[in-house]
Design brief:
globular; disordered N terminus; mainly alpha
């Protein structure tokens, strides 16, 4: 049985990073950009930490069971520990605090705060000895300026605690991403499953501490939003992100944080009748310019 699985893996097609990296980036840009609206819809019936816990526990357990059935090795004790730490930082605090903050903070303010994550990554990267290149730093600053432009005309009124929670989420996600790159982690898909499982446990604890429970009669609309977050946001999006963390520099891997806000604006306009202003278009153009600079920096020495 083991030999057969090894033969199948050996014969499986291996795609070039030149194809996989653009596909992973586009997946993050589009899918994670649309999750802002999905989270808002899900919060109509589900408490924030409960919604996030269900999302990652269900998908993590399903993916883990499937991988073990296919013969994937179980993570070692050290790998489980590393996944638990990373899953708590990325999913427990990173995603959980975003869900919690969106109860009281406008989507525009959420976009600005979450888009600060690449800047946190650049700062933490310096502590790990990985300073951003000149072009990457320029791209980071241009992208952040674009996000500010995108939200100058929006509703930035939100609770102070919500804003602090969003910044803490961005910092936690950035530190967890950089820390995990230097640790012994499982194979790619098992890494995704283990982090979702351990992150889901952390979110369950946060839900219990916050007094969150299961809704008595969730709406179909909210439940479908939760399903979308689980399948597309978790399995596809999170797998793409972990792949990028292993294969490209942090500035490019985290560039989704700048593209997600304009995508969220467009999704809101198309599906929720949210208005798009002229300044929004300018901000989107500046953001895409910043991402282009970061992408060009990947192949340069400066």
């Amino acid at each position: 049985m083991t030999d057969t699985i090894a033969e199948v893996r050996a014969d499986a097609p291996r795609f070039s990073p030149r194809l996989l990296i653009p596909l992973a980036l586009v997946s993050l840009y589009l899918i994670w950009g649309s999750t802002y609206l999905a989270i808002r819809i899900g919060l109509e019936s589900y408490a924030p930490f409960t919604m996030a816990a269900l999302r990652f526990l269900i998908t993590g357990a399903a993916l883990y069971a499937f991988l073990r059935w296919r013969g994937a090795p179980n993570p070692s004790r050290l790998q489980w520990r590393n996944c638990a730490i990373t899953g708590t930082l990325l999913l427990g605090f990173g995603n959980g605090l975003v869900c919690w903050a969106q109860q009281s903070v406008s989507s525009g303010l959420a976009a600005v705060a979450v888009a600060s994550m690449p800047l946190f990554a650049a700062v933490f990267g310096a502590f790990f000895g990985q300073w951003p290149r000149k072009l990457e730093l320029i791209g980071l600053l241009v992208g952040f300026a674009g996000v500010i432009l995108l939200n100058l005309g929006g509703d930035l009124a939100g609770s102070r605690l919500g804003a602090i929670a969003l910044l803490a989420a961005a910092a936690s996600w950035a530190f967890g991403s950089l820390w995990s790159k230097r640790q012994d982690m499982p194979e790619p898909m098992m890494n995704t499953a283990a982090q979702m499982l351990t992150g889901g446990v952390a979110l369950t604890i946060l839900a219990l501490l916050n007094g969150n429970g299961l809704p008595e009669a969730p709406t179909l609309r909210a439940t479908l939003a939760l399903a979308y977050l689980a399948v597309f946001g978790s399995i596809i999006g999170f797998s793409a992100y972990l792949y990028l963390l292993r294969t490209v520099r942090p500035a490019l891997a985290t560039s989704y944080a700048y593209v997600n806000p304009p995508v969220a604006v467009l999704v809101g306009a198309l599906l929720a009748n949210e208005r798009v202003h002229a300044l929004d278009i300018v901000g989107m153009a500046v953001i895409l310019g910043g991402v282009a600079i970061i992408t060009l920096a990947r192949d340069t020495k400066n």
